[in-house]
Write a structure and sequence with these properties.
With 158 residues, the chain is an alpha+beta fold. The chain contains 4 helices and 8 strands. Strands 1, 2, 3, 4, 5 and 8 form a 6-stranded antiparallel beta sheet that branches. Strands 6-7 form a two-stranded antiparallel sheet. Strand 6 and strand 7 form a beta hairpin. The chain binds 7-(2-hydroxyethyl)-8-mercaptoguanine. 7-(2-hydroxyethyl)-8-mercaptoguanine binds at residues 7, 41-45, 52, 54, 87, 93, 95, 121. 7-(2-hydroxyethyl)-8-mercaptoguanine is lined by residues 7, 41-45, 52, 54, 87, 93, 95, 121.
């Protein structure tokens, strides 16, 4: 499976995420498979910023991980990606979370995403579309969520 995480906490957040999905789906070598519900989520990392909207999608593609990263960055660029601070607010964020069984650690891409297992804003939507997918040390999103306190950080938006 190939899983992307989408997020936005600037501007029309829902429209930004829908536009990002459309941008990706327009690509001849990317096919959207599943789309999770949309969630309102409290910011983690740099907490002094607006709430995010987050979702995850699964895709099918013939691209390799670095080619897919390039297309995700292109899509962010086309959507006018605004990011002043590394951890600050952004109108659109497209992260590659899982790319089949690839393990990559280089200066532009880390797979699986290094913070995937500690992010309820990823694990909760991921549970919807890939509940039995091992995502971290053989554990599924359900296993990982059972170990976390996530009661008010992630709320179903739509
Ligand atoms: N809830 C939430 N917190 C975040 N902190 C960062 S950085 N990001 C950007 C994704 O890495 C997010 C996010 O998408 N959602």
């Amino acid at each position: 499976m190939i899983i992307l995480g989408l997020g936005s906490n600037m501007g029309d957040r829902e429209s930004n995420i829908k536009s990002a999905i459309c941008e990706l789906n327009k690509h001849s070598k990317i096919a959207i498979d599943k789309i999770s519900s949309l969630y309102e989520t409290k910011p983690v990392g740099f907490v002094n910023q607006p709430n995010f909207l987050n979702l995850v999608i699964s895709i099918n593609t013939m691209l390799n991980p670095h080619e897919l990263l390039s297309e995700c960055l292109q899509a962010e660029y086309h959507l006018g990606r605004i990011r002043k601070q590394r951890w600050g607010p952004r109108n659109i964020d497209i992260d590659i979370l899982i790319f089949q069984s690839y393990m990559i650690q280089d200066e532009v891409l880390q797979l699986p995403h290094p913070r995937l297992h500690e992010r309820s804003f990823v694990l909760i939507p991921l549970q919807e579309i890939a509940y039995d997918l091992p995502v971290y040390q053989g554990l599924t999103s359900k296993d990982l969520l059972q170990k976390m306190n996530t009661n008010d950080e992630v709320m179903l938006y739509k």
